[in-house]
């Protein structure tokens, strides 16, 4: 295994980062081709409908298990996610966008070596955090005592969230997944569902 795959694996395992959204949000109004991102027309940065359906199905499968309403796909959030994913790929590291820059939407991030990870693994790592989840008022929601250990998961299952838009950006040797959620989850003092 080459060093880039090791680095990508380490980033994926240890670098899931924390999901954000400390308050309810207001509505949110690459030139490279990869297996994960499809260009449907010139200057169209939308994900293929196939990839969007897969990501949405992963979110909704988890929500359905809890009896929560299904999320709807939002192309505007997808475009915002794509634009920010390109920024992160150029930086080569994950950091959440400032709340104002993302119109107060929630955000989940993931990064790994380009072409090595199916979207099921990317989103699956968000969902795997449920092993640490403890039902309570945010931020008292983790068996580890650290809310960030479950904040991707809680954003996926946050009852009040209605829409999601994600994009996988492949640039500079990275796959970067950015998912934006409206309204944002992880609201201080409230339960996920």
UniProtKB/TrEMBL annotation:
Chain segments annotated as transmembrane: none
- Signal peptide location: 1-25
- Source domain of life is Bacteria
Q: Which residues form the SCP domain?
A: 50-189
Which stretches does UniProt call biased (Basic and acidic residues)? 40-49
What PANTHER family is this protein classified in?
CYSTEINE-RICH SECRETORY PROTEIN-RELATED
Pfam family for this entry, one: CAP
Q: Where is this region: Disordered?
A: 28-49
Tell me which InterPro entries the record gives: Allrgn_V5/Tpx1_CS, CAP_dom, CAP_sf, CRISP-related
- SUPFAM superfamilies (alphabetical): PR-1-like (SSF55797)
* Keywords for this protein: Signal
The keyword Signal belongs to this UniProt entry's keyword annotation: yes
What is the recorded name of this protein?
SCP-like extracellular
